[in-house]
Amino acid sequence: MNAASGKTRSLGWVQECPRRLMVGFHVPDYDQVPEYRDCERDYGAPGILSAFDAKHFARELRKAYVQAFWFYSKCHRGNAYYPSKVGHVHSAMGGRDFFGELCEACLSEDIVPLCVYEFSDLRMPKDHPDWCHRIPSGNASDTDTTDAIEGSRIGGPCLNGPYGEFVLEQTREVLKEYPVKGYYIDFLGLFGMENWICPCCGDAYRKSFGQDFTGTANMSHDEFVRYIRWWYGQNDQYAKRVRRLVEDLRSDVLFTHNFHGYADCPNMQRMDFASANCDFVTGDLFHLRAGMLQMSWKIRGYATLSRRLPADVLLDGMTCVNGDFSTAKALATYKAELWTARSLNVGTTASVVMDIDGGFNQHIIELVKQIYAAQEPYEPWLRNMQALAHVGIVRSHDSLEFRPGAETDLAGRIAPHAQDFAGWCQVLVATHQLWDLVPSHLLTPEHLRRFDVLILPSVSCMSHAECAAVRAWLTAGGTLIASGETSLYDPDGNLQDDFQLADVFGALFVEDVSPERSYAKIEDAALAPEHAWVDGTLAMDGGQLAVTASDSAEVLGTIHGNPGIRMVNVLVRRREPALLRHRVGAGTCTYFAGAVGRQYRRCGQANILTVLSRLLDQAMGAKAAVALDAPTSVELFAHTQKGQPHMVVNLVNIFAGLSRSDGRVILGPTPGVMSVVRHDEYQESPRLSQVVVRFREDPGRSIQRVYLAPSQGTELPLEREGNEVLVTVRDLGEHAMLVAEYEN
Q1: What is the pLDDT of residues 722-742, one digit of tens each?
Q2: Which residue from 3, 323, 391, 676 puts its CA 20 to 30 A from 551's CA?
Q3: Contact between residue 682 and residue 719 where contact means Cβ atoms under 8 Å apart
Q4: Could you tell me if residue 305 is inside a domain?
Q5: Would you give the DSSP letter of residue 2?
C-alpha cells in the first residue's frame, strides 16, 4: 500500500479525534514458543493469528465510537506485521500484510490509522547480541517487561549502534508505504541503567568521560549525576533523530513516544526532553498498578507537557495486574479515568491486547463502547478548551534523582520530594482545588503567572534561576507554600549552607530531620482544628528540620517532641518553629519545617487535612472561579472555551479514589509472580444526593443560567450569596458536567 493512497486528514486529528484505541500486538511467533504446537495438537488450541480479521476489527471499533486506531508495525517480541525487508516478519501471517489490511480497514470505516513501533525487541539479544546491552549479573526472568521502570533495567537493544539504524530503516519502510497519520514509539531509550556492557555505548561513554563504564555502584555522587544527565542526553538525541526522519518523510505524520518519565528514580525520559521532542505528549497509565492518585497528577502532567497539541493518555481497558491482561476494568473506575483525562483536555486511548489467535476480548470492546458512547454527546463542551487552575504544585526531576542517596538504591529508594508531592496532590483532590502540575523546567516567570498559589513540596534540588523565578512571582503578589528541605540543595544535589530561599521562607536552616522533632503544634487559631476532639498537634513520623525564624517571620506552630525518657510518654515544647508565615513584597510564604504532605500520604490523619484545607482556603481567598461542597470522593475540574460566554465544570466522583491507593507493585512469594497493594474497583459508585457548586461572579459579569450537559434544557435553580451563585446537583453518579452561562 502506498502512503499517498486512501483518504487524507490534516494534523488536526489530534484535536478532532479524542476517542482512540490501541491494540497490543504482542503475539509470539512459532519459533519463540515451539511448545505451542503441542497445545494445538493436544488441546485444540487455535493457530497463532489464525482468526485475524482487520475488517471485523475496524467495524467493531466504529461501533464503539473509536475515531483513531493505534496498531503495531512491530511488537516487543520483535515480529513485524508487514512485509519488512530488514526485520523478522511474523510467519503466522502466511504472506499477508496485517498492518496494511488494518490501514485499509480503518480508512473504510473513517477511522484514522496510526502506527505504534516497539523499540524494545526480545529477538535482538538472541539474533544480534552485539546490538544490545548485556547485563553482567541479575535475573531478568522475574522482570515485568511491560513496566517502564522494570523493563528499563534489563538488557536490550542499543540505540547508539546498528539497532538504532535498524529502527530508522523500519520507520522508513512504514512511512513510505502506509497512510498512517501518527508514529508512536514505545520504550524509546537505553536499557540496563545500573550496569551494562556495550561496545557502542561504551565508545560514547569513553568519549564523554575519558574512562570505561563500570556500573553505578562505585560512583561518587558527582559522577552519578554526570552519568544520569549523559544517559538522558543519549535518549533525547535519538528521539530527535527519529522525529527528524518522520518530518522529512511525511509532513502529515505526527511523532510521539511513550513518556516513561514519572518514576521516583532515574528512568528513560525527562519531562523537559519529552515536551520538546514530541508533537504531542502521550504515555500509558496503568492506574491499577500505580493508584488512583497518580491518575490525577500524571494526566495533568501530560496536559502541561504537551505544548503543541492536546496530550494523549493510554487508559488500558484491562486491569493489568497480577499478569491479568484479559479482565475488563470496572465501569465506574474506567469512567473516572476517562473523565479525568477529558476534563483536562487530554485525548484518551483505550486498549485491548491481541489474543494469540489474532482475535480480541469482546468484553473489553463492549466496555470501551459503554464509556465512549456515554462521552460522545459531551464533545461540544470539550472543544477549544482552556483548563482553569489556581494552584500549581511542582514536580522536580532533580529532586527525585539527584538528592544525595539516589545513587545508592536506584530502584527502591523513594525521595522525600516524591512522598511529600504525592501527599499534597491528595490534599488538592480532597479539598476540590483547581490545580495543575508544574514541571520544574517550567518554573519560569511566564509560566508562574498562571497561578495564584504555588506549592513546593520538599523540592530539595533547585537552581538559582528557579529560585529567582519563584522569588519574583511571590514578590509580585503570589502565595507560596513550601515544606521540608526545599531549595537546600543545588540542581546536582550539593548541600548548601542554607536554604536558597531562606529570605523567602523567613527561616534559616540549622539541622537535618531528627525523630526528636516528631510533632508540629499548630498555634494559629485560624489554622488549628476548631473541634475540641480534634488535636491540633500533627504527628510527623521521622521528624522535622531544625530551623530558626527571621525577625520578620511569624511563627504559627512550634515543634514538640518526646525527650526519650524510658517508659514515659510526654511531649515537650522545643525552641524550633514548625510553621512560619513570612511576607515578601506583595506576597506571602508559608513554610513547614516537616514534610507534612508525606505524613498525610502515609497516614491520612484528618487533623492534617483540616489544617492544610484551611491553609489553602486562606491562600485562595475569593480568587477561586468555582468551589465545591462535596465529599472527598469528588474531584473538581473547570475550563472555558475560546469564544464562548460560559464556564464548564466537570465533577468526577469515584469512591475507589477515597483512599487514593498507591497500588505499588511488589514481588510476590513466587518468583516472577506479581502482586499489588489492594485496590478496590467499583462497577457503579454510590450516588451522592447533594453536591453544591459555588460559582464566583466577577463585577459586571453575572451568571444567567446553569444547566447540566448534554441536555441544555436541564437547568438548575440558582441561589445567590454575595458574589457567589450556588447550584445543587441532587443526584451525582460517576460524572456530571455543568455549564454556567454568563450574560453578554
Answers
A1: 889 999 999 999 999 999 999
A2: 391
A3: no
A4: yes
A5: -
pLDDT tier at 664, thresholds 50, 70, 90: low
Assess contact for 579 and 590: CB atoms under 8 A: yes
Q: Are 376 and 334 in contact (CB under 8 A)?
A: no
- Taking alpha carbons only, the member of 493, 490, 468 closest to residue 415 is 493
Same domain flag for 610 and 635? no
Extract the C-alpha cell encoding 265. Answer: 528514580
85-100 per-position pLDDT tens digit: 999 999 999 999 999 9
On whether both 326 and 196 belong to a single domain, the answer is yes
Co-location of 260 and 367 in the same domain: yes
**What does residue 609 show for φ and ψ, rounded to 5 degrees?**
-60, -40
| Last-in-domain residue among 602, 623, 644 | 623
Q: Kindly tell me if the per-residue pLDDT of 139 is higher than 60.
A: no
CA distances from 512 to 174, 485, 594 (A): 56, 8, 10
- Would residue 650 count as lying in a domain? yes
Q: What is the mean pLDDT of the chain?
A: 90
3-state SS assignment for residue 657: helix
pLDDT, average across residues 429-436: 96
Tell me the pairing of strands 347-353 and 312-316.
Answer: parallel
Provide CB contacts within 8 A for 310, sequence distance 6+.
14, 15, 18, 280, 303, 345, 346, 347
Flag whether pLDDT at 704 surpasses 80. Answer: yes
| Position 149 pLDDT exceeds 70 | no
Q: Is 297 buried (19+), middle (13-18) or exposed (0-12) by CB count in 10 A?
A: buried
Determine the pLDDT at residue 407.
54
Predicted local confidence at residue 413, as pLDDT: 61
pLDDT band at 290 (very low <50, low <70, confident <90, very high): low
What CATH number does the domain containing 706 carry?
2.60.40.1180
Taking the C-alpha atoms of residue 557 and residue 522, their distance in angstroms, rounded to an integer, is 4
Nearest to 268 by CA among 238, 223, 305, 306: 238
Q: Are strands 435-439 and 385-387 parallel, antiparallel or unpaired?
A: unpaired
**Which residue do the cell numbers 483518504 mark?**
7
205, 260: one domain: yes
Closest CA to 338 of 372, 364, 311: 372
Cell of 34: 515451539
Residue 446 host element (H or E):
helix 445-448
Task: Report the C-alpha gap between 185 and 171 in whole angstroms.
Answer: 10
Same domain? 27 vs 161:
yes
Per the structure, the count of domains in the chain is 3
Is 2 inside a domain boundary? no
Q: Are 696 and 654 in contact (CB under 8 A)?
A: no
Instruction: Give residue 642's domain range.
Output: 627-742
The answer, yes or no, to whether residue 152 has pLDDT greater than 70, is no
List of residues 6+ apart from 727 with CB closer than 8 A: 692, 693, 695, 706, 716, 717, 718, 719, 738
Cis amide linkage into residue 577, ω under 30° from 0: no
Looking at the structure, tell me whether residues 658 and 610 fall in a common domain: no
Q: Which of 157, 168, 153, 152 is nearest to 130 (CA)?
A: 157
DSSP string of 110-161, one letter each residue: T-EEEEEEE---TTHHHH-GGGB-B-SS--GGG--TTSHHHHTTS--B-TTS
